[in-house]
UniProtKB/TrEMBL annotation:
Pfam families: FAD_binding_2, Succ_DH_flav_C. This is L-aspartate oxidase. It comes from Capsella rubella. InterPro entries: FAD-dep_OxRdtase_2_FAD-bd, FAD/NAD-bd_sf, Fum_R/Succ_DH_flav-like_C_sf, Fum_Rdtase/Succ_DH_flav-like_C, NadB, Succ_DH/fumarate_Rdtase_cat_sf. The active site is at R375. GO terms for cellular component: chloroplast.
Length: 659
């Protein structure tokens, strides 16, 4: 069966198990047509067995162009020096979008082979990595085993994880940790001189390498220091990625770089490169409360979708069970937080106990693993308690542990709570679930390659098959480290056999920055004000209808409300002089939030079961026949909304890359 969405907003989400998809109707024979991609075939028959079928489906005429985009030479091409034809165009061998652990680790490796541009939306340290408290999971204890880590990951992922991917990540993880230590990252050690390994929910052994409760910050520090000292790497901070630059080579889509907006100078800067790595993080800000920093607006996922990359498993949004509930603090923050303050999983791993406001311990009622159950179980349990008791938060108590141990393991949490009059060594911590991590994203193979030639992905923006329906605690930094390294070899191979055409920059029309001069002060102010209002409304819709517990009726309501909200916003802008190629930070973030929200809703509607993070009241059970990834293909360029269309149009049919 096929379900239809409103005209102009159709995202085609294919659910391969039951051949359910959203959007235009397709003939059954389209599943077995001869449509294939020239490059980057996914592995068969595991993680990508369904993808190959989806890639063979008719693609709605998405951005089809007769452009010869890339050819390969029989002899290696030399690395290029970083070139700026003008201040608005820059040429590099590699462009890295994002400055978290995945982007920086990759940049350090490929810089040994060529020039690298690292593009970051804010300051280089402002990434999800920097806010990761818990640690990195890896098998480093003789009592632990790779097999145990594999099984813990598969169970947490509700058996939707790809076992081959899981084994690769769990096997290579220890070496990635040793590399970080060699680069200067400092992790906690026990009295015996060995690494102190913590335990978190879903793990059967102590295997979490950490730096107190600020692990991400320490890893980011070490990597960023190395990047800034590398002469082959240039870091461009305050550059917002607008859209990927692509062309067609037969049936293959080819990536040539990215357009960015320099937020400080209000200038569009174009980066042309042989290889692009997308490592831009997640989309937590589609919800009103998230542990993610403000930069996490789904830019990479939305850009990749518009560039015809395959998207997968977007229904699996992880809500961290324990974000600090400001309402329960003795001294309330004077201003609302930009992002929720995370209370790491390690607090429960160290013996923290969850109580409702009646001081009743409730987790053993829901799961025999109690507080050490996986995140999806704990988050749903808290949500159920809050709804049944009509309360706004629960309590996480670690005060029964020795004071010195608490302050040693959780100094950042203790300090933050003490600012607001709460001593965690004596009082329980008020906590509530908050949007935390996207388990879905841009579909990638074991080397981070996507179906778009020249585009690699790593980190939260990617869907590698590791997390399945729910991410195991502390597997995210691990995945980023492993895939950043695995993407290096195919990236450098492609770079060496590719030569850039330095005249390629003008093959695409350039975005134009919206200014008070072009639109008028009053109009621009009104558009920005409405955008902020619409952003809040979208977040509320997502939390109310696409939260921890869902239903088909509520998802359909969300789909309708999002379409209406997007139409209202776009109509207002375009009536007041906005144009397809205009860009502004607030508007571009909003289009990406709309795009990601629609991807989540469309994927959720396609999965008629409850698995992992996706719980449906009208499909409350796991269905073995539906244990297969959800696949999303691009929407039609002729009917899609602004959020689903790229800003640039190709303006020439000549070769873009030549060897």
């Amino acid at each position: 069966m096929a379900a239809n969405v409103s005209a102009g907003r159709n995202i085609h989400a294919f659910y391969l198990a039951g051949q359910v998809f959203r959007g235009q109707s397709y003939r059954q024979d389209s599943w077995t047509s001869g449509f294939t991609f020239k490059a980057n075939p996914f592995r068969e028959p595991s993680w990508s067995s369904g993808v190959s079928k989806a890639l063979k489906a008719d693609r709605c005429g998405c951005y089809s162009r007769a452009v010869s985009a890339i050819s390969e030479s029989s002899k290696p091409c030399t690395s290029i020096r970083s070139v700026s034809v003008s201040s608005s165009t820059k040429y590099y061998d590699f462009t890295v979008i994002g400055s978290g652990v995945a982007g920086l680790r990759y940049a350090l490796e490929v810089a040994k082979q060529g020039t690298v541009a690292v593009i970051t939306k804010d300051e280089p340290h402002e990434s999800n990595t920097n806010y990761a408290q818990g640690g990195v999971s890896a098998v480093l204890c003789p009592l632990d085993s790779v097999e145990s880590h594999v099984q813990d990951t598969m169970v947490a992922g509700a058996h939707l994880s790809d076992e081959e991917t899981v084994r690769v990540v769990c096997t290579e993880g220890p070496e990635r940790i040793r590399e970080l230590i060699a680069m200067g990252a400092s992790f906690d050690h026990g009295e015996d001189g060995n690494l102190h390994l913590a335990r978190e929910g879903g793990h059967s052994h102590h295997r979490i390498v950490h730096a107190a409760d600020m692990t991400g910050r320490e890893i980011e520090r070490a990597l960023l220091e190395a990047v800034l000292n590398d002469p082959n790497i240039s870091v461009f901070k305050h550059h917002f990625a607008i859209d990927l630059l692509t062309s067609q080579d037969g049936v293959s889509t080819v990536c040539h770089g990215v357009d960015t907006l320099n937020i400080k100078t209000n200038e569009v800067v174009r980066f042309i490169s042989k290889v692009t790595l997308l490592a831009s993080g997640g989309a937590g800000h589609i919800y009103p409360s998230t542990t993610n920093p403000l930069v996490a607006t789904g830019d990479g996922m939305a850009m990749a979708h518009r560039a015809e990359a395959v998207i997968s498993n977007m229904e699996f949004v992880q809500f961290h069970p324990t974000a600090l509930a400001d309402e329960g603090l003795p001294i309330k923050p004077q201003t609302a937080r930009e992002n929720a303050f995370l209370i790491t999983e390690a607090v429960r791993g160290d013996g923290g106990i969850l109580y409702n406001l009646g001081m009743e311990r409730f987790m053993p009622v829901y799961d025999e693993r109690a507080e050490l159950a996986p995140r999806d179980v704990v988050a749903r349990s808290i949500d159920d308690q809050l709804k049944k008791r009509k309360e706004k938060y629960v309590l996480l108590d670690i005060s029964h542990k020795p004071r010195e141990k608490i302050l040693t393991h959780f100094p950042n949490i203790a300090s933050e709570c003490l600012k607001h009059g709460l001593d965690i060594t004596r009082q329980p911590i008020p906590v509530v679930p908050a949007a935390h991590y996207m388990c879905g994203g841009v579909r990638a193979d074991l080397h981070g390659e996507t179906n778009v030639v020249g585009l690699f992905v790593a980190g939260e923006v990617a869907c590698t098959g590791l997390h399945g329906a729910n991410r195991l605690a502390s597997n995210s930094l691990l995945e980023a480290l492993v895939f950043a390294r695995r993407a290096v070899q195919p990236s450098t191979d492609l770079m060496k056999r590719t030569k850039l055409d330095l005249s390629a920059s003008e093959k695409w029309t350039r975005p134009v920055v919206a200014t008070a001069r072009s639109l008028g002060d009053e109009v621009l102010s009104k558009i920005i004000a409405l955008t902020k209002e619409v952003r809040r409304e979208l977040q509320e819709v997502m939390w109310k209808y696409v939260g921890i517990v869902r239903s088909t009726i509520r998802l359909n309501t969300a789909e309708r409300k999002i379409a209406e909200l997007e139409a209202k916003w776009e109509t207002f802008m375009f009536v007041h002089g906005w144009e397809q190629t205009l860009v502004a930070l607030e508007a571009c973030e909003m289009r990406n939030l709309f795009c990601c929200a629609k991807l989540v809703v469309s994927s959720a509607l396609a999965r008629h079961e409850s698995r992992g993070l996706h719980y449906m009241t009208d499909f409350p059970f796991v269905e073995e026949s539906k244990r297969i990834p959800t696949i999303i293909l691009p929407s039609s360029p002729t009917t899609a909304s602004w959020s689903s269309r790229r800003l640039q149009n190709i303006s020439s049919s000549s070769s873009l890359i030549d060897c």
